[in-house]
Amino acid sequence: MLKGYGQTEFSYAEKRRILWYDLLLYLTMKTEGFYRGYGTPESTAEVQKNIDDIYSELVVLLQ
């Protein structure tokens, strides 16, 4: 995927920004699903798992 952009890996700043954007996306998905009443227990659990995984990656990256 990165070859098309002439890169072989993301920089530290790019990795950090991608994780923050992903975290924002999944937090929005969790909030909207609850607020609008269309989140199923399965989808909510999957979104929460993604939130937990991204948060863990951020904690490791920011150390």
Number of strands: 0
Structural class: mainly alpha
The dominant shape is elongated
* Main sheet specs: none
Residue ranges: pLDDT <50 for 5 or more in a row?
A: none
Question: Please, how many domains?
Answer: 1
Mean pLDDT: 91
Written description of the protein model:
- The structure is a single chain.
- The chain is an all-alpha fold.
- It has one domain (11-62).
- Helix content is 75%, strand content 0%.
- Helix 1 (12-36) packs antiparallel against helix 2.
- The chain is elongated.
- 5% of the residues are buried.
- The model has no long low-confidence stretch (mean pLDDT 91).
Offer a concise description of the structure:
It is built from two helices and no strands.
How are the elements arranged and paired?
Elements: H1 12-36, H2 41-62
Helix pairs in contact: 1-2
Keywords:
elongated; 63 residues; 75% helix; single chain; mainly alpha; 2 helices
